[in-house]
Amino acid sequence: MTTINIIGVVMLIGSVLGYGALFLWVLTADKRKARKEGKQWNNRNSSRSR
């Protein structure tokens, strides 16, 4: 029973870390995409935004 509990805890921690890493990767991917498009977007709308 204890080995099953240990395996369960390890899988739980691994899944939490995996979801956290995936979440951070998605956030950084959005920032990277926004930075690429942001250069063109800011040049076009610089007069309107200020």
Descriptive notes:
The chain is rod-shaped. The protein has one helix spanning 2-49. The longest helix has 48 residues, at 2-49. The termini are far apart. 96% of the residues lie in helices and 0% in strands. With 50 residues, it is mainly α. The chain is built from one helix and no strands.
Please tag this protein with its features.
mainly alpha; 50 residues
What class, by secondary structure content?
Answer: mainly alpha
Helix count, per DSSP?
1
Strand content: under 5%
Let me know the average pLDDT.
81
Question: Which regions contain 5 or more consecutive residues with pLDDT less than 50?
Answer: none
Number of strands: 0
Concise structural overview:
The protein has one helix at residues 2-49. The chain has 50 residues and is an all-alpha fold. The radius of gyration is 21 Å and the shape is rod-shaped.
Helices, strands, pairings?
Layout: H1 2-49
